[in-house]
Each structure stands twice: as structure tokens, then as C-alpha cells.
Design goal:
about 900 residues, mainly beta, Immunoglobulin-like, 11-stranded mixed sheet, 1 helix, 73 strands, about 0% helix, PKD_dom_sf, PKD/Chitinase_dom, PKD_dom, PKD domain-containing protein, signal
């Protein structure tokens, strides 16, 4: 059993090494070294470069040899499988000291580069060969690959056949330039060189980003050969499972791209740090014919470093104002200094803005070369760039449209204004949801829509100076042209002439267009003069697109008017006038006391009895009528002056009225509320309302109020009863009001202050009167007991909580100015009471629970008026 366990452990250990996730890229390439020993054959040196992560502790994937499977193209059975031993291993890493201009440089960009190499001889083939290598596994957590730890790699190279081009088999793979260990910082501009050279010296190279291939890596059961399949399966091979938003063509940020001529991969790095798989395909062209595509993939590490970079867009267009705003497109390390040369002979501008923002005002139009220099570490780190600024303000795009009908094309008119240069390029998008070709490059195009509704039209217009503006506007396409009428029903007098009006795009025609009813019936604004009510119809024709509408003109031979019934209101009140009339315009007199003398229903505020006259008008016909508004003063209701009383005091009200009846409210705190002079006894501030009515015509009562303000109650306190020793001064202290009076004055240094000093040699009871400026007052007493002994603290030796007297256990301080503490403990040393207030004591309970008869220990301490500390302790018996 132990032997079986050991074998199982070794198998698991071996499997762990096979499955270790270390691979960070690779490349399989070959070199033609001449004809083979057999006729019509060729010899090649085939090399695998395998990039292994430096920071994995597990020694997996450290194979001493690898297997290459060779397939003739189109075949699924390998021509042969060869074993390639490891010939060398080297480590390449990024050196942070190589670039002091990167803050927080990465320290984990490192590859262990292993080389496996062998020599093969294969017959020259018409179709060529594919040499493949597969293995598990790539790193876990790759940013642009889903579940990357369960993926593997497939590296391949292709030997072209003679059908592609005569002699094409005499080819060597492109040699990629070294430089894989570079620092790429998140959200920053970067460059990674995939450039290569052609060993044959006859081929041209082109570069493109492409899919990385998956390979061995499925961990199923105990299929250890799945990790390093031998032979590797034949083509075609599957692409890696890229995460959404990524692909072989977009392996990092969408802004990143590769130069097809140089192989320089550049752009803005992603904001998420981590590994990204990037694959380049290098196409070899010989005599204009594609003979081979060479592949290399590598895991590029994006770090949280911050590089120094001066980065501008190639060209800027400033078309709104001479004051321009520019910023560096790279977030640089803190403390970066920016030096701006605006190219207009103005002095250099120096800025330490964290984002590299600057503003500059150009004096004139023109094309300027801007130069930005970024400096860090007192100039040890420096980077610069240039851009073109085209300053031609005063460019405003715009357009209008003519027509609204669905049956006809809508005509668009460019209204762009350019102060410098002229608009010379237009790109229209007509917003037709039913078409894909709804665009135009004409200045003033037309478009016929197939559906009605609101259409979002966009114009992108460019000037000869390079200014670009985008204009968006929604146009309304209708099935019929729109007719806008100011009204659809109106009233005129039979002696009037009325001008009708309609607006819209097209030709108008009004009916009935007869000589005794209408003039100018084929215009938008005809004149009509009917003698009876008539409906006039208008037709709008927009290039064969027709709509109709109508206006009814009601005709009367006179104006009807009733100004309303005369009425009476209370003086200073307002009233809304309600005449009955079919008039269209109105004029009231006198206008001075009306809210609006031209309204049908104005608000009147007469200062006395007033006759209002209204003139009602329909065209040239008018009529007048009057209404009398009588204004009667309110009944006199004078509730008397406001007053202030003390709490629980009373006040007399003194009212004056002119009416036939009156009432008070509220009455709950009034004595004799039926009289004009009731007595009030409120306990809180109260407003009493007096309501008076008369029979002089005012329909509303007169209202008067009086406020009785009740002062808060005065609560006098002379302090707690106390004990002193003979010849000891006692500081009294009263509270409760602003003023005080002590009686008797015996022994007091001042009986009319809040805190007199008492010097007595016998027991004394003092009464203090506390009163306010309003003469509100209250009384309290303090009993002073005089002892002939020295200052001391007396404590009883027993108490009975349930009796009427002696029911609290408390100390009796004599000649003590301050009690420091009074504490009671039970027989187990538990503190059951603690207080420093001599007026309070223990009630024989603990947490609300009654204690049984028992003996308790007490401790007390106080300070005398002379500063002497007096401490006492003893026992007390609780009796029930």
C-alpha cells in the first residue's frame, strides 16, 4: 500500500510540472542551409524560442527537448516528427535604471528565453510544409484571454512550396529584432518593436496583428500526453478565446496599431494592468508574390508606472476663437514642467499644470507649428514633440431646409459662414431610416423620404482652412404640407372687413372666392366682408402635395351687453366684475381702480361708491353699459392694547366697537365674555379675536385682535438646606429670575443680590423672592443649621427605607463646602451606591431590587470652607 501511494504521489507531482502555467510567448522559425543529401531535397535548421515567466517557483515546462511535427500541406498524417534538444537558455529583463524618466518603473518584466533547435531534411514539395509545436500552458489571469490558465500554445512555421514560386523552398524565416523586455505603462503612449530583417536579402516584409493560437491545455482526467501532444495535431489551429472587446487585431487598446512597413506596434496602453497576448504576422513577398507568413506571439506586461511623454495630436484646428486651449495627451509624473512654443514669436510659456493644460491667444490667423517640451528631474528627463495649429476662427456651420411634404424631395440649403476661407467640403446624412445611401457630398442637396416623421439630419462641413463643424437638426416630414392659422373661429360685425391669414410653403387658394365676399383669394392674406356667418376654406398646394383647412367667420348686426347687477362690498375689499357680452374687445372706465381696464373680467378695488362703465366692441360696432359698486366701511372692532402678564395672573380687556353685535374668541379663558371688558386668565400667550357686525351694508364683520403675552413661570430656588459651624461664613446662591430680595436681612452682607454671604451664630431660615422686570415673582426658603463643633460629616448608623421618615441613607455635612464622594458597599465589597450630592441618598435598592436587612459599609469625603479635607467611614444597618 505504501508503494502504491508513492507511485501516485510521483504521478501527481509529474502532472503538476507538466501543467505549470509559465509560457509567456514563443516563435518557431527556420533557416535554409542548402540542398539535402537526397535528390530534390532541402535542409533547414528549425529553432523554437520559448518565453518562460521568470517569477514562477514551480519548475514546470523546463523540458530538455521538444517535439516538432512536420506536415506536408493538405495532409493530416505527419510526414515526420523530430526531437529538438534545448541548446541554450538566457534571461532578458527590463532594467529600471535604463530610463530614469519613468516613475515607479516595473521590476517584473522578465523572460527566461529557451532555445530548442534541430536540423531537418525534407523533399522539395509543390505545396510546402507546416512545422508545428504544441504545449500547455499559458499564464493565469491574462487580461485579453478568457480562462487563460487553461489555454496552451501552438507555434508554427511554413516552408513554401514550388507551386507558389519557383525556388520558393529556398527561404529562411524573417529574423525579428530583439527588444522584448520593455516598460509599458497603463493609459500611456507606448512602442513595441516587432520589426524584422530578411536573411535571404530578396524579400519585402509587411506586418499585421493577427490571432494567437491556442494549443494543448485541456486538463481532463490523467491525459498527461494532452499537455505535450506528440505528434502535434495538423492545421488548421484555433484562435485563443479572446475576452469581449479584444481580438487578434485589437489585442490591447483600440488606439494601438502596427505600422505595416516598420513593424512598430504603438498607441495608448490599456488602463488595466496585467499581461496581454499580442501576435504579429510578418508576410514575406518575393517578386510581388506572397510566399510565407511568419508568426510570433508574446505576452506584453502593462504596469502601473508613469512615463514622461510629450504627446500632441498631429494637427489642431481652432475655428471658434483666437484663444485656444491645448493639453499634453499623456498623464505625466508629478512635478513635470511643460515648455510651450506656440510658433507665433511669443515668449515661451512654462507650466506645471498636472494635466499639461495651457491656453494661448494668437494675434492673427495662420498656420503655426507648436512645440511642446516636457522636463523632469531638473532636466535629466526630457521629451518633446511638435504639432500643427491652424487658427482660423469665425467658422460656423449651418443649414436650412425647404419643403415638408412626403411626396416631394426636401431641399437642403447650406448656410455655413466662414470669416476666413470658404466652405468647400460637405458630408450630409439625411437620417432616412429606410435607406442606407441617404448621404450626399453636394453643397445644397435634395432628398425624398419614403416615410413621414422627424428625421435627424447631420451636416459635417469643412472649410478651405481645415476647419470642421458638425450641425445636427431634426426636420419634420409630413404627409401633407402644414397650414398654420391664427384662429379657426372668429366674430365680426356686418359692417366690417376682416383680413384672414395662413402660413405655409406653397400656393394658397381661398373659397368661396366671389366678388361680394372676398378679395385676393389666391394669396395667404385675403380680405373678407360677409354679411352672414360664412366658412372660408383654404387650400395649400406644395408642388402637388395638397392640404386644406378652414376658418368660420360669424357675423352679427349688433353687440349684446349686460354689465351686471349693482352690488355692495366692504370698503378696501376687491370684486371681480362679470359682464355678459359677445364683444371681442373691451374698455372700462374709470380705469384707476381696476386691475386691467381692457379685460372682460377685471378686478375692482373702489375707494368709495363707484359707477363702472364698459364699452364692448366687435369691429366697428360698439355698445356701453354701467354697473354700480357701493363700498361700505367695515364695522369698527378695536379689541384694545396688547399687554403682558405673569404666569397664572389675569388681565382686563378694554374693547371699543361700532356695530349691532360682537363676540370674543376663544372664550375658555375669559370671565364674562359677553361684555366689552372681560377678564382674561390665559396660562400661555393668547390672541383674543373680537368680531363685530352691523347693518350698514358691509356684508363682512369687522375684526380686531389683542395679544396677551404670558411670561414663563418664575421658579425660585434658595438652595438646599444646609449646616454650618459657628462663625463660618455661608455663601447663599439663589436662581430663578433677574432680581432677588432676601428676608430677613439678619447676618447678610446684601439682601438684594443673588448670592449674599451670611454670617450667623444661630439657626436661621431665609426666604428669597426672585422676580423679573415685569414684576413676576416666586418665593423659596433655605434652612441653615448652626453647629458649635468644627467642620465634620455626620452619617446615621441605621435607616428604614419603607417608613415615612429616615427612609434615605445620606450624609449630613457640617461646614463642608463640597462633598467629594459618598459610597456604600455590601458585605462582598460590591459598590451599591455612589453620589456626591448631599441632598440625595441611598434608598436600599440595587438596580431597582430591594435589599434585605443587612449591614453595609460606607465611605465619605468632603472639603471644608477653609480647604480642609475630611474623610469618614463606618457601617450602617438597613432595617425593614
Amino acid at each position: 500500500m505504501k508503494k502504491c501511494a508513492s507511485i501516485l504521489f510521483l504521478m501527481l507531482y509529474y502532472a503538476a510540472q507538466l501543467y505549470a502555467n509559465h509560457i509567456r510567448g514563443g516563435e518557431l522559425y527556420y533557416k535554409y542551409i542548402g540542398p539535402g543529401n537526397a535528390p530534390n531535397s532541402s535542409r533547414y535548421v528549425v529553432t523554437l524560442k520559448l518565453y518562460i515567466d521568470c517569477f514562477q517557483n514551480n519548475p514546470g515546462q523546463n523540458d530538455e527537448a521538444e517535439n516538432f511535427s512536420i506536415y506536408e500541406k493538405g495532409q493530416t498524417t505527419p510526414y515526420t516528427t523530430v526531437n529538438a534538444p534545448k541548446i541554450k537558455e538566457e534571461q532578458i529583463r527590463y532594467d529600471p535604471a535604463s530610463n530614469p524618466c519613468i516613475t515607479n518603473p516595473p521590476t517584473d518584466v522578465c523572460y527566461n528565453l529557451r532555445y530548442y533547435e534541430t536540423t531537418i531534411e525534407v523533399p522539395d514539395s509543390r505545396v510546402g510544409y507546416t512545422i508545428a509545436f504544441q504545449r500547455c500552458c499559458r499564464l493565469d489571469g491574462i487580461q485579453n484571454v478568457s480562462n487563460s490558465g487553461r489555454t496552451g500554445v501552438t507555434y508554427l512555421c511554413e516552408i513554401p512550396g514550388t507551386d507558389v514560386l519557383a525556388g520558393a523552398q529556398k527561404n529562411s524565416s524573417p529574423t525579428l529584432i530583439a527588444g522584448d523586455a520593455v516598460a509599458i505603462c497603463m493609459s500611456s503612449a507606448f512602442q513595441f518593436n516587432f520589426g524584422a530583417t530578411d536573411p535571404d536579402g530578396t524579400d519585402s516584409l509587411s506586418y499585421a496583428l493577427c490571432d494567437a493560437y491556442d494549443g494543448a491545455g485541456e486538463r481532463q482526467g490523467t491525459c498527461f500526453t494532452c499537455v505535450t501532444p506528440n505528434p502535434a495535431p495538423p492545421p488548421p489551429y484555433s484562435a485563443l478565446p479572446y475576452r469581449p472587446g479584444f481580438s487578434g487585431g485589437v489585442p490591447m487598446d483600440p488606439s494601438a496599431s502596427i505600422n505595416p512597413k516598420t513593424g512598430l506596434f504603438s498607441g495608448i496602453a490599456p488602463s488595466a494592468i496585467g499581461q496581454y497576448v499580442v501576435t504579429v504576422c510578418v508576410s514575406e513577398y518575393r517578386q510581388g508574390v506572397l510566399i510565407n507568413v511568419h508568426r510570433k506571439d508574446i505576452h506584453i506586461k502593462v504596469s502601473d508606472c508613469v512615463p514622461l511623454n510629450a504627446l500632441l495630436s498631429p494637427e489642431y484646428h481652432f475655428c471658434d476663437d483666437f484663444k485656444v486651449a491645448i493639453r499634453n495627451n499623456q498623464n505625466n509624473p508629478p512635478g513635470t514642467m511643460y515648455v510651450w512654443n506656440y510658433g507665433d514669436k511669443s515668449k515661451l510659456d512654462t507650466s506645471y499644470d498636472p494635466m499639461g493644460n495651457v491656453t494661448h491667444t494668437y494675434a492673427d490667423t495662420g498656420v503655426y507649428q507648436i512645440k511642446l517640451t516636457a522636463l523632469l528631474s531638473a532636466g535629466q528627463c526630457i521629451d518633446s514633440t511638435t504639432a500643427i495649429a491652424k487658427v482660423f476662427p469665425g467658422f460656423f456651420g449651418g443649414f436650412t431646409s425647404v419643403g415638408t411634404c412626403l411626396l416631394n424631395p426636401i431641399h437642403f440649403v447650406d448656410t455655413t459662414k466662414a470669416k476666413y476661407g470658404a466652405a468647400n467640403k460637405w458630408t450630409w446624412a439625411f437620417g432616412d431610416e429606410t435607406a442606407t445611401n441617404d448621404s450626399s457630398n453636394l453643397q445644397n442637396p435634395s432628398w425624398k423620404y419614403s416615410t413621414a416623421g422627424s428625421k435627424p439630419v447631420q451636416l459635417i462641413v469643412e472649410s478651405s482652412k481645415g476647419c470642421i463643424d458638425t450641425v445636427l437638426s431634426a426636420i419634420d416630414v409630413k404627409e401633407k404640407p402644414t397650414i398654420a392659422l391664427p384662429f379657426r373661429d372668429t366674430l365680426i360685425c356686418n359692417i366690417d372687413t376682416l383680413q384672414l391669414s395662413a402660413t405655409g410653403f406653397g400656393i394658397f387658394n381661398w373659397t368661396p372666392n366671389i366678388i361680394n365676399l372676398m378679395r385676393n383669394g389666391n394669396t395667404a392674406t385675403p380680405l373678407v366682408f360677409p354679411k352672414a356667418t360664412t366658412v372660408f376654406y383654404v387650400q395649400l398646394n406644395e408642388d402637388g402635395c395638397i392640404n386644406t383647412d378652414s376658418i368660420r367667420v360669424r357675423v352679427v348686426d349688433r353687440v349684446t351687453l349686460n354689465a351686471g347687477n349693482d352690488t355692495t362690498i366692504c370698503l378696501t375689499d376687491a370684486i371681480v366684475l362679470h359682464p355678459q357680452t359677445d364683444g371681442l374687445r373691451y374698455a372700462w372706465t374709470p380705469a384707476g381702480t381696476l386691475s386691467d381696464s381692457t379685460k372682460l373680467n377685471p378686478t375692482a378695488r373702489p375707494t368709495g361708491t363707484t359707477t363702472y362703465q364698459i364699452t364692448s366692441i366687435i369691429g366697428k360696432c360698439t355698445v356701453k353699459d354701467d354697473v354700480v359698486v357701493t363700498a361700505v366701511p367695515y364695522p369698527l372692532a378695536n379689541a384694545g392694547p396688547d399687554t403682558v402678564i405673569c404666569y397664572r395672573d389675569t388681565a382686563y380687556l378694554h374693547a371699543t366697537v361700532d356695530g349691532i353685535s360682537y363676540t370674543w374668541s376663544p372664550t375658555t379663558t375669559l370671565v364674562n365674555p359677553q361684555s366689552l371688558n372681560p377678564r382674561a386668565y390665559p396660562i400661555r400667550t393668547t390672541v383674543y379675536t373680537l368680531t363685530v357686525r352691523d347693518n350698514k351694508g358691509c356684508p363682512k364683520p369687522g375684526i380686531g385682535t389683542v395679544t396677551i403675552t404670558v411670561r414663563p413661570p418664575v421658579i425660585a430656588s434658595a438652595g438646599n438646606d444646609t449646616s454650618i459651624v459657628i462663625n463660618q461664613p455661608l455663601q447663599l446662591n439663589a436662581t430663578g429670575a433677574e432680581f432677588y430680595q432676601w428676608t430677613p436681612a439678619t447676618g447678610l452682607n446684601n439682601p438684594n443680590i443673588q448670592n449674599p454671604v451670611a454670617s450667623i451664630n444661630q439657626n436661621m431660615t431665609y426666604v428669597v423672592k426672585a422676580y423679573t422686570v415685569d414684576k413676576c415673582y416666586d418665593y423659596d426658603t433655605i434652612n441653615v443649621k448652626v453647629f458649635t463643633s468644627l467642620p465634620d460629616i455626620f452619617v446615621p448608623n441605621a435607616f428604614t427605607p419603607e417608613r415615612a421618615s429616615n427612609n434615605l441613607f445620606r450624609p449630613i455635612p457640617v461646614g463642608i463646602s463640597k462633598l467629594d464622594y459618598f459610597r456604600v458597599y455590601n458585605r462582598w465589597g460590591q459598590l451599591v451606591y455612589n453620589n456626591a450630592d448631599p441632598g440625595k441618598g441611598w434608598d436600599g435598592t440595587i438596580n431597582g431590587n430591594l435589599q434585605g436587612p443587612d449591614t453595609f459599609v460606607w465611605m465619605v469625603q468632603g472639603t471644608s470652607y477653609t480647604g480642609q479635607v475630611i474623610s469618614r467611614k463606618g457601617t450602617v444597618v438597613l432595617m425593614r
